[in-house]
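Summary of Year 1 activities. Much of the first year was spent building the evaluation harness for sequence design. The harness presents a backbone, in tokenized form, and records the residue chosen at every position. We chose the following record to illustrate the format because it has been used consistently in internal testing since the harness was completed.
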């Protein structure tokens, strides 16, 4: 029996997240996080996406390409405080035997006038992630409101997000090129991207979004954006 397989990426998605730190831990938590995927040959044919525009959401199968092939039989999910361990197959950890991920995203646009370009909303993928497959989301079989969620019993609490006057001015200038930047910053920081084991402190964190470095700190349940600098 053949025990090895090879996969050719359909393309590499462009996202606002050049680094892993700050990426929402699940898809669709930051709806203004858009991803753009240009299909590469031989998959860049209009007929390959014919009918796809009729679906509002799609599943993306992708590769955790920055994990370096590492895996562990148990992991420490952030939702359990970063201390309790569960089996890797009871988690969505990127450190898996086969570094495949699955993400449910909104399909915002399908363009076929110059190859095939797809735009997604609510992405949770690092910039340059290889996409292996695209499948339409079918609500009547894939929406299960009564399903059990294990230790993930609902959305996590969110931080309130506020801005200093200097940060507001810098963001306003940057929004000429990135109109949804302020909303994206709020959505990302509201999820509290700090490590689960982070101790309360006055530490200043940096999250890179597009070509910007967002400097912020957390005071209790409030994230304060201090500055927006070129990365």
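For this record, the design step produced the sequence shown next.
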């Amino acid at each position: 029996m053949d025990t090895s397989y090879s996969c050719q990426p359909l393309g590499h998605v462009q996202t606002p997240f050049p680094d892993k730190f700050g990426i929402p831990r699940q898809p669709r938590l930051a709806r203004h996080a858009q991803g753009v995927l240009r299909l590469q040959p031989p998959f860049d044919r209009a007929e390959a996406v014919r009918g796809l525009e009729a679906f509002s959401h799609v599943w993306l199968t992708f590769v955790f390409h920055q994990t370096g092939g590492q895996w562990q039989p148990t992991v420490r999910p952030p939702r359990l405080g970063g201390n309790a361990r569960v089996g890797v197959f009871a988690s969505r950890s990127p450190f898996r035997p086969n570094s495949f991920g699955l993400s449910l995203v909104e399909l915002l646009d399908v363009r076929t006038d110059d190859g095939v370009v797809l735009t997604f909303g609510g992405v949770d993928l690092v910039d340059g992630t290889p996409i292996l497959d695209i499948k339409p989301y079918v609500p009547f079989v894939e929406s299960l409101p009564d399903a059990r969620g294990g230790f993930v019993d609902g959305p996590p609490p969110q931080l309130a997000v506020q801005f200093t006057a200097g940060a507001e001015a810098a963001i306003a200038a940057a929004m000429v090129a990135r109109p949804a930047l302020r909303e994206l910053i709020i959505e990302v920081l509201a999820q509290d991207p700090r490590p689960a084991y982070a101790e309360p402190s006055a530490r200043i964190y940096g999250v890179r979004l597009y070509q910007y470095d967002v400097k912020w700190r957390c005071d209790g349940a409030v994230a304060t954006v201090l500055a927006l600098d070129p990365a």
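The chain has a mean pLDDT of 94. Quantitative recovery figures across the full test set are reported in Table 2.
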